Amino acid sequence: MPVITFANAKGGAGKTTAALILATELASQGHRVTILDADPQRWISHWHEISGPQKNIAVISEVATASLQCHIRENRGTTDYFVIDLAGARDALVATAIGLSDHVMIPVQGCAMDARGAAQILELLKQLDERAGIRIAHSVVLTRVSSLVTTRAMAAIKALLSARGVTVLDTPIGERTAFRDIFDCGGTLRSMDPARVSNLDKACENARLFAEEVLRLLPLRNRERAGRGFFQTIRRAA
């Protein structure tokens, strides 16, 4: 049961949208998904409240540093994938979630502030590696990408990040009406009315390709990260 965490020390980078798109797409494919909503804004919890019960999706809203590992341990028997949505911060909860992850997704829009927030997460990952030998796989996902952004411009962005040793997903998350409306209407992309949501088919295809690429990055089995040394490192890194 891999743990996929969405992190950027800056708010508004598209973490919550990316986390919900991935979770609902995995659930629609038949996977059991538990979302740990550790963002104080609780947007995913609100989505869950207005959506009602959703097949293959469970949402846990009360997530703290002390309870995070317990939530994962207690729900592993009924979960195929854990998805963690974090606050735009760098604190003990963020550090703990990252340390328990199999893959950290770092959403970034095309702005300097998002890049600085991403750099803080990358520095935290580096500290976990150097201080505790905990190497967490991670990737950047470009978010809210406008259709006006050319393939050439996207390639330039990816090349810049790759030159710094950062893996960038081939599938960016586009700026789609459906990705905004899902938080207002509830449900999933597949339950939306295509007559009321523009380019819903393109949004669904974007979600499918994003989920497929994320799954290809995951390890074959979950790694266990526990013990006093790990949590001492987490406290120092935060």
Strand content: 5-15%
Number of structurally distinct domains = 1
Radius of gyration: 17 Å
What portion of residues is helical?
Answer: 40-55%
CATH names the topology as Rossmann fold
Order of helices and strands: EHEHEHEHEHEHHHH
Q: Give me the number of helical elements.
A: 9
Largest sheet: 6 strands, parallel
**CATH homology superfamily:** P-loop containing nucleotide triphosphate hydrolases
Q: How are the strands of the biggest sheet laid out side by side?
A: 3-2-4-1-5-6
CATH classification class: Alpha Beta
Structural class from helices and strands? alpha/beta
Q: For the terminal residues, how far apart are their CA atoms?
A: 26 Å
Question: Stretches where pLDDT falls below 50 for ≥5 residues?
Answer: 221-229
Protein name: AAA family ATPase
InterPro entries: DNA_Partitioning_ATPase, P-loop_NTPase, VirC1
Describe the fold and architecture.
It holds the Pfam family VirC1. This is AAA family ATPase. The structure is a single chain. This protein has 238 residues and is α/β, with parallel strands linked by helices. It has one domain (3-221): Rossmann fold. 46% of the residues lie in helices and 13% in strands. The protein is built from nine helices and six strands; from the N terminus they run βαβαβαβαβαβαααα. It has helices at residues 15-28, 43-51, 68-75, 92-99, 112-132, 151-163, 177-185, 200-217, 228-237, and strands spanning 3-6, 33-38, 57-60, 81-86, 103-108, 137-142. A six-stranded parallel β-sheet has the order 3-2-4-1-5-6, with helices on both faces. α5 links the parallel β5 and β6 (137-142). α2 (43-51) crosses α7 (177-185) and α5 (112-132) packs antiparallel against α9. The longest helix is centred in the middle third of the chain and has 21 residues, at 112-132. It is globular. The model is unreliable at 221-229 (pLDDT under 50).
